[in-house]
Amino acid sequence: MIVLESPLDMHLHLRDGEMLKKVAPLSSKEFAGALIMPNLIPPVTTKKRVVEYKEEIEQITKKDHFTPYMTLFFKSNYDLEFLKSVKEEILAIKLYPSGVTTNSQEGVKEFDKLAPTLEAMSELGIVLAVHGESNGFVMEREREFLKVYEEIAKNFPNLKIVMEHITTKDSVELLGKFDNLFATITIHHLYLTLDDLAGGLLRPHLFCKPILKTPKDKEALQEVALSGYEKVMFGSDSAPHPREKKEAPGCAAGVFNAPVALSALAQLFAKKGKEENLQKFVSTNAQKIYNIKPPKKVVKLVNELFKVPNEYEGVVPLFANEALEWRVESVV
Ligand code: NCD
Ligand code: ZN
Question: Is residue 140 part of a domain?
Fold first, then answer.
């Protein structure tokens, strides 16, 4: 048996409206809290939207002892006064380079104009969460973005920066070079490589940004996650899209893994004999990095088969129709 206390998902897309109703309970049942991504249409850029969106999530998850930790969509016109007014409502601000992923069009185009907002965030202690990809060749985008991370980390030593969903060995190595760099890692990047997506028949449900990488990258991610290293935490990047948007000539980017998250993590950590480090990866590290105290929730997983459904109301999960070796037995 594996017992987890207050598991946290520090990178989660819940969407809004009907999709939110479908997917939020699949996270709120087992997780004690999650960092909620702001890439809605239109993106969450005002205090009013943050508060309304939070209330919409709470309406759906209220019986579950689940804290939605909210984020704002980074804009380089946010000033100190605005940030002061919204600080209590958010845990981080999420920066997307324009056009690199789903609903990121309104993201940053000019990276030389970030300084005043980053300075203000640093002063107020607001965490900067970043989708770190360039507009270059798809397999090199994360590597090309590392110089931006270095630049920001060096220029704003008091700003906490989370490199979201890191996927390469180089990113793991950069983490160790600056005290103010942290990272989240997804399940799909811990389990899969580009071969799973495109090495045989094309599997659109595994298509996401950043794209799945090489076996060497996957090994580096596994090594750092399994070690319990205090600067990395679990962020599922669970990103639901309706089946028809995935099984399409232009497939939407995003892997929906929320319903299998804890089972898949338990399976990986158990297989590698690192069960004792899962609590750190899935809760303790995030609590320290973000300085949060999530609601108390105890999740017990047992070494029994979990047959993953084919879909959840039109949304296809990671490992659909496959069996995982661990299942959630109880949540108290
Ligand atoms: C995410 C989405 O669908 O919102 N898609 C993805 O491929 N990961 C956005 C993101 O985090 O990049
Ligand atoms: Zn994401």
Answer: yes
Can you read off the two tokens belonging to residue 182?
């942290």
Q: Give the position, in ligand 1's atom list, of the atom nearest the Cα of 39.
A: 4
Tell how far the Cα of 11 is from the centroid of ligand 1, in angstroms.
10
∠ CA 284-293-132, nearest 5°, is 60
330 in a structural domain? no
Nearest atom of ligand 1 to the alpha carbon of 241: 3
pLDDT digits (tens, 9 = 90+) for 264-300: 999 999 999 999 999 999 999 999 999 999 999 999 9
Average pLDDT over residues 52-81: 97
Count: domains in the chain: 1
Q: How far is the CA of 302 from the centre of ligand 1 (A)?
A: 30
Say how many residues make up the chain.
332
User: Is 196 known to be catalytic?
Assistant: no
Q: From the CA of 37, how far away is ligand 2's center (Å)?
A: 7
208 touches ligand 1 (CB under 6 Å): yes
Question: Residue 66 sits in which domain range?
Answer: 8-293
Confidence of residue 46 (pLDDT cuts 50, 70, 90): very high
Q: Tell me the average pLDDT across 26-31.
A: 98
Q: Which two tokens stand for residue 5?
A: 């206390």
Place of tokens 């607001």: 126
